[in-house]
Specification:
Structural class: alpha+beta
Low-confidence stretches: 69-89
Strand content: 5-15%
Radius of gyration: 34 Å
Strand order of the largest sheet: 1-2-5-3-4
Length: about 270
């Protein structure tokens, strides 16, 4: 008890404040959130790219995911689609398409032809197709040699494609109408038309070694199966193939597979003469 008249004695209160620690490695929740954000952004960019891609490219990609083990739905030929998977590096085919379109505009009366010339970027490469009309715009009906209009267009096309390092495939297609006679059929007609196109193109800029294959498909790859006798089934197709990536040296491939530098084999001592 404190004496009377003196101030009371207050108890001493000690306040201890703990400093918050840094908790080891700051936790990992933010890393998970950041990874989710990056994944979402990547998915967004892929969707935007697919929306702007060519319709036939979209179909090829869709076919691959529906059946990854199969060849997928290739535009054009099955044999030409050996490069179904996208290879790197590749030329910018969209820019090449625009360049060829501009070059073909110099052909006389191209305005009347433009609806019958289709240029698309496909899984095989840049596909340039000359689609026939009922009157026979590029090839007269049943004739293997091109018309004057067809020869002019193939010549102008060859002048541009001959500047490229890419290989070319040339295809001939017919409709389902049987060719009159037994000795000559749509097989021979489609092959002869493709070969006639090759000769004209090689005479005007395309290098002989640049032509990888010349094929005739008759009516086996109709453009419009629902209308097998339609004129646009008769066509010449020129495919500008993608450039393949150069093969890497064996040492570099081994380094990529194992992550280690290859160990050189020890030098063998020279054999003594017998």
């Amino acid at each position: 008890m404190a004496e009377s008249g003196s101030s009371p004695v207050r108890p001493i209160v000690v306040i201890r404040r703990r400093k918050a620690g840094h908790g080891g490695h700051h936790g990992g929740a933010w890393k998970v959130a950041y990874a989710d954000f990056v994944t979402a952004m990547m998915a967004l960019f892929i969707v935007l790219w697919l929306m702007s891609a060519d319709k036939e490219v979209q179909q090829s990609i869709s076919a691959y995911f529906n059946n990854p083990s199969g060849p997928g739905k290739l535009t054009g030929t099955a044999a030409a689609g050996l490069g179904n998977a996208i290879e790197v590096p590749r030329d910018d085919m969209a820019k090449l398409r625009e360049k060829i379109q501009q070059a073909l505009k110099t052909v006389p009366n191209f305005r009347s032809l433009k609806d019958n010339v289709e240029i698309t970027v496909t899984s095989d490469g840049l596909r340039i197709e000359l689609l026939e009309t009922e009157a026979g715009m590029f090839f007269e009906s049943g004739r293997p040699l091109p018309s004057e209009t067809g020869a002019e267009l193939l010549t102008r096309l060859a002048e541009e494609l001959g500047k490229l390092p890419n290989n070319l495939l040339i295809e001939g297609h017919t409709d389902a109408k049987p060719y009159p006679g037994e000795a000559y059929s749509n097989w021979e007609l489609s092959s002869d038309r493709a070969n006639s196109a090759r000769k004209i193109m090689q005479a005007h800029g395309v290098r002989p070694e640049q032509v990888a294959q010349v094929r005739g498909y008759a009516d086996r790859q109709l453009r419009h199966p629902e209308d097998p006798n339609g004129a646009s089934n008769r066509r010449i197709s020129v495919i500008v193939q993608y450039l393949e990536a150069p093969e890497k040296p064996a040492s570099e491939r081994a380094k990529q597979e194992t992550g280690k530098e290859p160990v050189p084999e020890p030098a063998r001592p020279p054999e003594k003469g017998k």
